[in-house]
Amino acid sequence: MRQLEFVVARLLKVVLVMFGIVVLNFFLVRLAPGDPATVLAGEAGAVDPQFMSEVRARYGLDRPIHEQLAIYVRRVATLDFGESYRIQRPAMDLIAERLPATLLLSLSAFVFAMAAGVALGVLAARRVGRWQDMAISVTALVFFAMPLFWVGLMAILLFSVQLGWLPAYGLETVGGGFSGLRRAFDIAAHLVLPATTLGLFYVAIYVRMTRASVLEVSRLDFVRTARAKGIREPRIWRRHILKNALLPVITLASLQAGSLVGGAVVTETVFAWPGVGRLAFEALGQRDYNLLLAIFAVTSAVVLLFNLVADIVYSLVDPRIEARA
Amino acid sequence: MSAGPLLNIEDLSVALPEGADRRFAVQGVSLPLGRREVLCVVGESGSGKSVLANTVMGLLPAPALRVAGGRIMFDGQELTRLPEESYRELRGRRISMIFQEPMTALNPVLTIGEQIEEVLAAHGMADRRTRRERALELLAAMHLPDPPSLLGAYPFRLSGGQRQRVMIAAALALEPEILIADEPTTALDVTTQKQILRLIREIQERRRLSVLFITHDFGVVADIADKVAVMQHGSLVEYGVAAKVLDAPEHPYTQRLIAAVRRLEDGAEDARPVAAAEPLLEIKGLRKTYRSASGFFGLRKREVRAVDDVTLTIHQGETVGLVGESGSGKTTLGQLVVRLLPADGGELAFRGQEIRTARGARLLGLRKSIQMVFQDPFASLNPRHRVGRILTETPIRHGVTPAQAATRARELLHLVGLDVGAYDRFPHEFSGGQRQRIAIARALALDPELVVADEPVSALDVSVQAQVLELLADLRRRLNLSMLFITHDLRVASRICDRIAVMRGGVIVEIGSTRQIFGDPQHEYTRGLLDSIPGRSWLGIGGGAPVADRATMTL
Amino acid sequence: MKDLLAWSRHHWALLLGGGMLAVLAALTLAAPALYPEDPLSMVGPPDVRPFDEGFLFGTDSLGRDVAAGILHGARTSLLLGLVSTACSVLLGTGVGAVAGYFAGRVDDVLMRLTEFFQTIPSFMLALVLVAVLSPSIWTIVLAIAVVSWPPVARLVRAEFLSLRSRDFVKAAVVGGHPTHVIILRHILPNALTPIIVTGSLMVASAILLESALSFLGLGDRNNITWGFMIGAGRSMIRQAWWLSAIPGLAIFYTVLALNLLGQGLADLLNPLLARTRRA
């Protein structure tokens, strides 16, 4: 039952890290130049002194700092991130509305990146030194060097403006009035460009990692042992090489989860995708810091959840986890 | 068909890639392996013995090494020209192989059961239940405990010896005619080595197996071989019946190697009278426990008593051997003495000064008096520093002027038998033996009274081992050094130590003069260790109580 | 001569990356001479296509010369990338060295901290930091440094953990050398190779990160940057594609050069290291 123990330990870690992020958030507001109340209220505060004192009271800004922290943590624990002063709605509501779109985009991009990255990485490793390997490695190098938002813009230019194949903006056709399966197809068509754009960068990362990992494992002693036992090559690849080589790729995927969410912010901005990233961009433009910090906390939580899933997957694949935990 | 050897290597050459230090890894080797015969191929590192084994198995690392000439005949087939699929069918079914490193030779994420059963499946045993039964049978035959639960276990739970047994089980699953064993016991402790050797011999006799056994250790050869082949720089220099090669070697190289081994057993000169000399290092009730946290937030604590109530005295001018297997705590004890680790309890005094609590100038003074020589000469010299800096840096730290330190460093190089030109070169320009000489010179640079030597010759080839041991013996005589000599190898300890302390599980189980330990061991564990020395009867070691199973060990 | 040829074939990535960077550096230094005017000022008619009317890369809707922007932007990008990487390498090396050398509790605390910074979405943190502290060159450097040190710390820690248990370090301890000498003169020089390789790759990701911040409008408004140019040209993509395409190519060129250089350095230094360790 050490596996359960491992998962519980990781869960506790998630809670601790989340607490850390909330505390960090709290101090970020106070790090900003000027009165925290001004920061929290954004540009809205500049005009209205009465509004400002209201903000001060609500956050207990006239009390000692540790009490302020306690208040803040308690509020966040009940998912209360305060209001967006521009839009006059609870920040959490705004985020919750946008979260599904972001999850759809991030997960599609992740699945695409993982599948393509691992497949191409394995192919490159099996053909190491030959033209397939060269082609894959050079392509990975190229996409690894391109800024995501620029790839997105160029994709729009090519596939939307020039060729007219795919829609460039939004989650679905405005006023299309589709429902059911047709709506799903419509969303899928809108998803292709942003998900591919976001995914390509990570394909490049996973290709490099998978290739290196496969090459390293295929040199290990137990692979030689398997050959000495007369095991057939397909099985050697499946059970001996891949099963071991994919472990570091899982770890990497987990580590990259945070960066993927960051990439989503930029991608959503380019494609006018109505997700949390787009919301962050809007909050940025309106200096709505409270909303921005809330988005930061919520996306962090999503990343932590993703890490947790990755850890659990890892513990299922690697029997040594109980020795490591 | 029954006439002639089972496997015949004919004029085999294996080419090294361009730019290597020689053209062939194996050059023009002809060697027969008879039916039901154990053929040992012996050589030092770089002799090409492992490459030979891998060539027979068709497992050469593809573009780097390739067969350049010759044939390997097995049962009417020429192996070097065999298509890959036919070769695959041969491997594991008619020719099997086990390797040196049992820790890495098993796939960490597959169960033991799967790794044995896959051999059966690969060679056509389709029925799951039959495979499972066969695997159980094999594990039992390897004398492994609790086969049913072992089938579902993962390798990381098994010890090195157990893993090697699993490897052998998988190799023998289909009753092959030939077993190729590439240094299968080199990574194991002596007592485990003895058990594995006995197992291989037992199976060989019962199943009428032919064994191609690769080793660097003539002791192992004496224990297991019917025929011996000696290799040097890729060529075969001597081949013959074991008894003859061992006792009357013809080729000068073989003579030199065997002399080096035999000289190890000559025994030290008589223990010098040390009782009268004053005690230099006094260890009393010394303790060190390693604690590691694991499991749920580290709530599950594990404790290992690495050094448990150890008492030991080293007198002026005396060399005390500390002998034990891996995990016995011998290295920890050495590191406590030089204050690389803090002790948990007990006393540790050098000339009456407590080492454990020394600080500042007093600690620095102690460091000057107690120096250390490490096991791996490739790791113990900073790769980015020239030899001159390595030898002068520490004396300068202790207040010697740079000019004096440089002069002294050149003297030291001469003392350890190196050219003065070594002063300006980097460690990687030297061989293992030369590096160990540099490491010894570094330890002597401060004119210490006590040197702690942790396995100083274990990483070296036999012939180099003998030279470095001679150097140490010579230095200790000339400089009146005292030494704590840590080793896993009783043969090595016997060569240089006045007294030997045998350690197991953090405890010194027996201590006595070298002659006593070898001639009249008191503790059962010491007797077991002595008995596990490979080639013991050939070398004529001991006179300890005879052990029941000796008959199966010797030829 | 033949050796040199073989050497260059083996180290093509290093040579290509280095060459590309040398060209970029030369152009950057020449920028004030080639385009003496402020790249943010109007110098020609609006929306000139590339190669038309003497404008290599055309002009934007305000008649600003794109080529001038590219060259002047190079300085900002390179400087930001170098300075922020230097900061994060210093920070990461410090944290990693202390954690790896002292191990135990110190290591536990520092590694939890590192993991914490590695877990939180780094781009979001950078974005929030720059937004809250108000955008300027220094807040951008700070933000990039804060989010990019953890991998360095982990790398250096791993190196230190393995090096401190090596016998030559133990020999230095037994020789009585003080801790700072052991860390700085015995361990650090042996850990330098991977730090340099990682550093050169980090300059590339720092430039990418900076361009994304600028693209979102979080750049320093006093200096022109490539990310800002793409962001500004974005709304014109249907009419004037070159406004966003060309600065993107500049980023691509720079980042590719740095990645090639990093990979080339790794190839150059690692076998050397392997040889000194094993030979």
From TrEMBL, chain A:
GO cellular component: plasma membrane
First-listed, main subcellular location of the protein, grouped into a coarse class: membrane
Pfam families per record: BPD_transp_1, BPD_transp_1_N
Compartments, record wording: Cell membrane
Membrane topology category: Multi-pass membrane protein
Keywords: Cell membrane, Membrane, Transmembrane, Transmembrane helix, Transport
Database matches in InterPro entries: BPD_transp_1_N, MetI-like, MetI-like_sf
Chain ranges passing through the membrane: 12-32, 101-123, 135-159, 187-207, 245-271, 291-317
Domain ABC transmembrane type-1: 99-310
GO annotation, biological process: transmembrane transport
CDD domains for the chain: TM_PBP2
SUPFAM superfamilies listed in its UniProt record: MetI-like (SSF161098)
Superkingdom classification of source: Bacteria
Keyword Nucleotide-binding assigned: no
Alphabetized PANTHER family for the sequence: ABC TRANSPORTER PERMEASE PROTEIN (PTHR43163:SF9), DIPEPTIDE TRANSPORT SYSTEM PERMEASE PROTEIN DPPB-RELATED (PTHR43163)
Family label: Belongs to the binding-protein-dependent transport system permease family.
Full protein name: ABC transporter permease
Source organism (scientific name): Limobrevibacterium gyesilva
Source taxonomy: Bacteria, Pseudomonadati, Pseudomonadota, Alphaproteobacteria, Acetobacterales
TrEMBL record, chain B:
Family, per entry: Belongs to the ABC transporter superfamily.
Keywords associated with the record: ATP-binding, Cell membrane, Membrane, Nucleotide-binding, Transport
Any single biological process term in GO: transmembrane transport
Entry GO terms, CC: plasma membrane
Domain ABC transporter as annotated: residue spans: 7-258, 281-530
Family annotation (Pfam families): ABC_tran, oligo_HPY
Intracellular or extracellular location(s): Cell inner membrane
GO molecular function, one term: ATP hydrolysis activity
Protein's UniProt name: ABC transporter ATP-binding protein
Keyword match Protease: no
PANTHER family: DIPEPTIDE TRANSPORT ATP-BINDING PROTEIN DPPD, OLIGOPEPTIDE TRANSPORT ATP-BINDING PROTEIN APPD
Membrane topology: Peripheral membrane protein
From TrEMBL, chain C:
The keyword S-adenosyl-L-methionine appears for this protein: no
Bilayer disposition of the protein: Multi-pass membrane protein
Listed name of the protein: ABC transporter permease
Any one Gene Ontology cellular component term annotated for this protein: plasma membrane
Localization: Cell membrane
Record-annotated ABC transmembrane type-1 domain positions: 74-262
PROSITE patterns: ABC_TM1 (PS50928)
Keywords, in A-Z order: Cell membrane, Membrane, Peptide transport, Protein transport, Transmembrane, Transmembrane helix, Transport
